[in-house]
Design goal:
This protein is an alpha+beta fold. Helix content is 22%, strand content 27%.
C-alpha cells in the first residue's frame, strides 16, 4: 500500500487506488479469492494501510458483444464525420473490468448504429476522459474521420483545455509542467512521473486564488493517461477531490476530482474547417467555487 494512504476498508481502498474498478467488482474479486492481503485471502471489510501488501489478480475480459443502450447524451454538435458531446461525470467511456455495460460506447451505438469502426470495444473513440472527469469529447463516425483526428492529436494540433482546481497557491500566473509520465514503478494501475516515461507537457494559467486553492486553466500539448492529475501532484498541487493522486480526505463539497474539459478545437475531418467548442463549468463544480468564495469573503470580513 502507498505510504500516504491511511487505513481503510480493503474494498474501498482498492477502488480508490484503481478508479477503473468499481467497488462492486472489487468486492466480487475479494469473494472469489482473487485479492490477497499479505499472501492470504481477505474480507472486504478488512482494514488495510501503509506496509500491507495487497495483490490483485484480475481475470482476462470475456469476449462480449456490445449491445446498444439508450443512455441520454448531451450532444452539442454532429455532422457526417464527427460527434461532439459534453460528458457528465460518472459515465465510463468504454467497457472495462467492473464496467461491462452502461458506458458511453453503449450509448453511442444506440444513437449512431453506423459507428462500428476502429477497435471493437471502442468504436469511434479518439480520446477519453476519466470516469469522474466531465466535459468535451469528440467521437469519429467514420474510419477516415478517426484517422484524421488521431493524426491531429499526434501532431498536437487539437486544442484541449481544462478547468482545474488544485490544492494550495501556485505562486506564478503562468507556467509549464514538462515531465515524462509512465506506469508507477510499484502501483501498476497508476501513472507517475518517471525518467523512462513518455514526454508530457502541460501549460497552465491561474484564473483565481481561492482560500488555499487555485483555479487554473490547463492546456495539454500531449495526452498521457491521467496527465493533469499526475503533473499537478508532481509539483505539489494535486487536483482537489482526487483521492488517488492527492489527499484522501476532501474538505470541500466535492464528490469527484475538480477537472472539467472546457474547450475543444480541431479541424473538421470532412471540410478542413476549424471547429471549436466550449462547455461551462457544471453545477457540482460551480458550487465548490461558490463555497470557497464564501469562505474567502468571510475571512476578509473577519480581518477587517
Amino acid at each position: 500500500m502507498p505510504a500516504d494512504f491511511p487505513k481503510g476498508r480493503l474494498d474501498r481502498t482498492i477502488s480508490e487506488l484503481y478508479p477503473d474498478l468499481s467497488r462492486s467488482f472489487v468486492q466480487k474479486l475479494i469473494e472469489t479469492g482473487a485479492v490477497r492481503l499479505d499472501g492470504k485471502p481477505a474480507r472486504a471489510a478488512t482494514k488495510v494501510g501503509p506496509g500491507d501488501v495487497v495483490s490483485i489478480e484480475i481475470p482476462p475480459p470475456q469476449p462480449t458483444r456490445l449491445v446498444p443502450e439508450y443512455i441520454p447524451l448531451n450532444v452539442i454538435y454532429e455532422d457526417k464525420d464527427v460527434v461532439v458531446l459534453d460528458k457528465p461525470p460518472g459515465l465510463v467511456v468504454h467497457p472495462a473490468p467492473g464496467h461491462p455495460t452502461g458506458t458511453l460506447v453503449h450509448a453511442l451505438l444506440a444513437r449512431y448504429p453506423d459507428i462500428r469502426i476502429g477497435v471493437t470495444i471502442r468504436p469511434g473513440i479518439v480520446h477519453r476522459l476519466d470516469k469522474d472527469t466531465s466535459g468535451l469529447m469528440v467521437i469519429a463516425r467514420t474510419d477516415q474521420a478517426l484517422n484524421s483526428l488521431i493524426q491531429q492529436m499526434k501532431e498536437r494540433a487539437v486544442a484541449k483545455e481544462y478547468l482545474v482546481l488544485v490544492h494550495g497557491r501556485i505562486g506564478v500566473q503562468k507556467g509549464v509542467i514538462e515531465a515524462p509520465i509512465g506506469r508507477h514503478p510499484t502501483q501498476r494501475k497508476l501513472m507517475a512521473v518517471v525518467p523512462q516515461g513518455r514526454p508530457a507537457r502541460t501549460n497552465f494559467e491561474v484564473v483565481l486564488d481561492l482560500n488555499g486553492y487555485t483555479l487554473v486553466r490547463a492546456r495539454l500539448e500531449t495526452g498521457r493517461t491521467h496527465q493533469i492529475r499526475v503533473h499537478f501532484a508532481h509539483i505539489g498541487h494535486p487536483v482537489a477531490g482526487d483521492r488517488v493522486y492527492g489527499p484522501r480526505k476532501v474538505d470541500l463539497p466535492l464528490d469527484r476530482q475538480f477537472l472539467h474539459a472546457c474547450r475543444l478545437g480541431f479541424k473538421s475531418p470532412g471540410t478542413g474547417r476549424w471547429l471549436e467548442f466550449e462547455s461551462p463549468l457544471p453545477p457540482d463544480l460551480a458550487v465548490v467555487l461558490d463555497y470557497l468564495r464564501g469562505l474567502q469573503h468571510g475571512s476578509d470580513c473577519a480581518e477587517a
